[in-house]
């Protein structure tokens, strides 16, 4: 069971989230996408691990993070996502930097219509040139047996010639159990004002996520099992869930091959529940691949992690 300090932090995080309002499409679009190839392959449930991009799921995870990552995804032949993240130990804790950029074609120049079509429309390029950007800086450190972190983010959306940006914050807490083989985390994300384009408003995709992740459970001397799961309460009251498993095969010392699969509750039109992927690790370098099915064309993401 989580320690009392973790439960108290969870209650405080819940209070940070704005009260639910009538549901409406949210923006920027890039903030509604899984943060890494490894997470996408496991249904969107980010492993609570030492990956630099983990700060985009829970800034408290920065306290474990190190290294850097590069991500890229193609949605059919239409949309392209790129992301960079790094983590560096500073001032008794860890500082993280991350940038995400999505280029796509929107279905409409109207903000609400474009946001409503959203992720499901990414594999089919619409008539309106559009992009979505996020740039974040975060800091985390251990405190009284838990890891606490916060992120400040600038995010914007462009639809044709119109553009608007906003500043938001994430807060997160994480705690390790069983010598950090099991990690539990809670995060409140995208706290701030929404966007306004051509007189239309769209709130940020605020959410509170409770996640758990376990790794390196030995099935045989050369096969380990890992798993991640997450439940999120979204702005407006919708609840989503995601989970996945990772089977790591270690044929030689310093090398591993990961087989991943996951499932999720989908709210975006056109998305499918199942995802899958592969990973290859040599020492401190990992190459990841994820497959995401849509009603139309499928999407593929690759990522490179250096720890």
Explain this structure:
- The protein is mainly β.
- The protein has one domain: Beta Barrel (Porin).
- Helix content is 8%, strand content 55%.
- The longest helix is centred in the first third of the chain and has 13 residues, at 4-16.
- It is globular, with a radius of gyration of 18 Å.
Keywords:
single chain, Porin, two-stranded antiparallel ribbon, 3 helices, 16 strands, globular
Short description:
The chain has helices at 4-16, 37-41, 111-117, and strands spanning 67-75, 79-90, 93-106, 128-143, 146-159, 162-177, 182-192, 195-197, 200-202, 207-220, 223-234, 239-249, 255-264, 274-282, 285-292, 299-306.
SSE inventory with pairings:
Layout lengths: L3 H13 L20 H5 L25 E9 L3 E12 L2 E14 L4 H7 L10 E16 L2 E14 L2 E16 L4 E11 L2 E3 L2 E3 L4 E14 L2 E12 L4 E11 L5 E10 L9 E9 L2 E8 L6 E8 L1
Antiparallel strand pairs: 1-2, 1-16, 2-3, 3-4, 4-5, 5-6, 6-7, 7-10, 8-9, 10-11, 11-12, 12-13, 13-14, 14-15, 15-16
Overall SS class: mainly beta
Average pLDDT for all residues: 88
Largest sheet: 14 strands, antiparallel, barrel
The CATH class name reads Mainly Beta
What is Rg?
Answer: 18 Å
Known CATH architecture: Beta Barrel
Number of domains: 1
Order of helices and strands: HHEEEHEEEEEEEEEEEEE
Q: Tell me, what's the shape? A: globular
Distance between the termini: 30 Å
Q: How many H/I helical runs? A: 3
Amount of beta strand: over 45%
Per DSSP E runs of 2 or more residues, the count of β-strands stands at: 16
Stretches where pLDDT falls below 50 for ≥5 residues? 1-22
């Amino acid at each position: 069971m989580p320690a009392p300090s973790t439960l108290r932090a969870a209650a405080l995080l819940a209070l940070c989230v704005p009260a639910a309002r009538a549901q409406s499409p949210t923006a920027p679009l890039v903030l509604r996408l899984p943060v890494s190839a490894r997470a996408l392959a496991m249904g969107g449930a980010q492993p609570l691990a030492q990956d630099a991009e983990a700060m985009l799921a829970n800034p408290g995870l920065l306290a474990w993070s190190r290294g850097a990552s590069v991500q890229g995804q193609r949605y059919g032949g239409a949309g392209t996502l790129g992301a960079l993240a790094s983590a560096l130990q500073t001032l008794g804790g860890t500082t993280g930097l991350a940038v995400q950029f999505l280029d796509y074609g929107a279905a409409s120049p109207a903000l609400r219509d474009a946001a409503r079509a959203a992720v499901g429309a990414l594999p089919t390029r619409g008539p309106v040139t559009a992009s979505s950007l996020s740039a974040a800086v975060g800091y985390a450190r251990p405190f009284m047996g838990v890891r606490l972190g916060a992120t400040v983010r600038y995010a914007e959306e462009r639809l044709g010639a119109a553009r608007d940006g906003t500043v938001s914050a994430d807060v997160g807490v994480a705690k390790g159990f069983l010598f950090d083989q099991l990690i539990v985390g809670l995060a409140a994300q995208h706290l701030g004002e929404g966007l306004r384009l051509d007189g239309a408003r769209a709130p940020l995709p605020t959410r509170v996520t409770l996640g758990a992740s376990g790794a390196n459970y030995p099935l045989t001397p050369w096969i380990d099992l890992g798993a991640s799961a997450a439940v999120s309460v979204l702005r407006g009251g919708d609840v989503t869930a995601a989970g996945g498993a990772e089977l790591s095969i270690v044929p030689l010392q310093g090398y591993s091959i990961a087989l991943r699969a996951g499932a999720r509750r989908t709210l975006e039109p056109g998305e499918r529940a199942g995802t899958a992927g592969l990973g290859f690790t040599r020492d401190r370098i990992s190459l990841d691949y994820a497959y995401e099915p849509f009603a139309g064309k499928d999407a593929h993401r690759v990522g490179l992690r250096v720890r």
